[in-house]
Amino acid sequence: DNYFNTSNKLSGKTVLISAGPTQEAMDPVRFISNHSSGKQGYAIAKAAKAMGANVILVSGPVQLEKIEGIQTIDVTSALDMFEAIKQNADKADYIIMAAAVSDYRPENIAEHKIKKSDDTIEMTFVKNPDILAYLGQCKTKKQIICGFAMETQDLDKNAKEKLEKKNCDMLIANNLFVSGAGFQTDTNIVSLLTKDSIEHLPKLSKEELGQKILETMMKIEEGKTKC
Ligand code: CTP
Ligand code: CA
């Protein structure tokens, strides 16, 4: 399928996408985060827009240009992202969690800048809500949900477990240690899992992968309405 005859395939559909990292504050001047660039999530948003969808993009802090003609909701922390996603999930036909959500956040955010004192310091972290697992639990009949998985070992096995545990219809599994894959690159080498299949995709641009993801979601939807 080329770009031109895919346009408008998704007209009338609302696609909710999360992208980028989250930042978890420690004090007014510091945070912990990760290396996510947001490129993959933004590329999916562009592909969805090109296919005629109504796009809602929930974006963590990234250095990327805003995409014209879509709704972008900027968030900082995982808790912010969770709120924005919860508020928009009901409208969504397709949900794609491409964001690299921080698993933990500091238990307390210091009101003032933490002062340097001892040679070592300790900080307690608490678990963030798992947004994708929440969406999987609350999934409506019409919704198709796609998760991502970043692994450094046992990719297929770990990814399959995540797909099942989080009740996703589809999951894109990334191996951080494969070159041309992952956080800061313009290309991705991934495996595409559905409930009953696994496909090892060739190296694709992030936009090509975006289109592939959306087309697979459309196929899953067609399969659903048949039964
Ligand atoms: N995710 C999420 N909320 C979180 C953590 C992850 O929604 N608090 C989503 C990510 O957006 C991604 C998927 O869950 O779509 C998998 O993320 P990943 O970090 O690979 O897996 P985890 O379930 O967090 O497990 P782990 O990091 O221990 O491998
Ligand atoms: Ca994680």
From TrEMBL:
The residues that hold CTP are D103, K113, P129, D130, I131, L132, F148, K162, K166
Catalyzed reactions per annotation: N-[(R)-4-phosphopantothenoyl]-L-cysteine + H(+) = (R)-4'-phosphopantetheine + CO2; (R)-4'-phosphopantothenate + L-cysteine + CTP = N-[(R)-4-phosphopantothenoyl]-L-cysteine + CMP + diphosphate + H(+)
User: Lyase among the record's keywords?
Assistant: yes
Q: Which UniProt keyword terms apply here?
A: Decarboxylase, Flavoprotein, FMN, Ligase, Lyase, Magnesium, Metal-binding, Multifunctional enzyme
Per the record, which residues fall in region Phosphopantothenate--cysteine ligase?
15-227
Q: Which domain of life is it from?
A: Bacteria
Q: Which cofactors are named for this entry?
A: Mg(2+); FMN
Q: Which GO terms describe its cellular component?
A: phosphopantothenoylcysteine decarboxylase complex
Task: Mention one GO biological process in which this protein takes part, according to its record.
Answer: pantothenate catabolic process
**Pathway entry:** Cofactor biosynthesis; coenzyme A biosynthesis; CoA from (R)-pantothenate: step 3/5; Cofactor biosynthesis; coenzyme A biosynthesis; CoA from (R)-pantothenate: step 2/5
Residues forming the DNA/pantothenate metabolism flavoprotein C-terminal domain are 10-219
One GO MF term attached to the UniProt entry? metal ion binding
Q: What is its EC number?
A: 4.1.1.36, 6.3.2.5
Q: How is the cofactor bound?
A: Binds 1 FMN per subunit.
Q: Could you say which protein family the record assigns here?
A: In the N-terminal section; belongs to the HFCD (homo-oligomeric flavin containing Cys decarboxylase) superfamily. In the C-terminal section; belongs to the PPC synthetase family.
Q: What does this protein do?
A: Catalyzes two steps in the biosynthesis of coenzyme A. In the first step cysteine is conjugated to 4'-phosphopantothenate to form 4-phosphopantothenoylcysteine, in the latter compound is decarboxylated to form 4'-phosphopantotheine. Catalyzes two sequential steps in the biosynthesis of coenzyme A. In the first step cysteine is conjugated to 4'-phosphopantothenate to form 4-phosphopantothenoylcysteine. In the second step the latter compound is decarboxylated to form 4'-phosphopantotheine.
Under which name does UniProt file this protein? Answer: Coenzyme A biosynthesis bifunctional protein CoaBC
Range of the intact protein held here: 175 to 401 of 401
